[in-house]
Write a structure and sequence with these properties.
The chain has about 80 residues and is mostly helical. Helix 1 (about 20-35) packs antiparallel against helix 2. The strands form 2 sheets. Strands 1-4 form a two-stranded antiparallel ribbon. The N and C termini lie far apart (about 45 Å). The protein is built from 2 helices and 4 strands; from the N terminus they run ββββαα. About 70% of the residues lie in helices and about 10% in strands.
Amino acid sequence: MPYRIPPNRGVREGLITVEIDGLDERIRELCARAAAAEESEVEAIFAELQAALQEHLQFVRRMTALTLNRGSKKRGSSSSKAA
């Protein structure tokens, strides 16, 4: 998987930072290739780029869901303490 939590930097004040190893570089490479490609090559490069962007989007959605769920659990435990 191209995503990892960096050692000694992953958790800070309840937040998790994630570095994207190969995927961000792959997306930049595909963009550069598409910009320099012959017209006959562009469709295949765009298909690769679309797949890479879809993978990134799925990761961002998972991270967002995890973050929102963690936040709602914190709020739920705080409100139960107040009651």
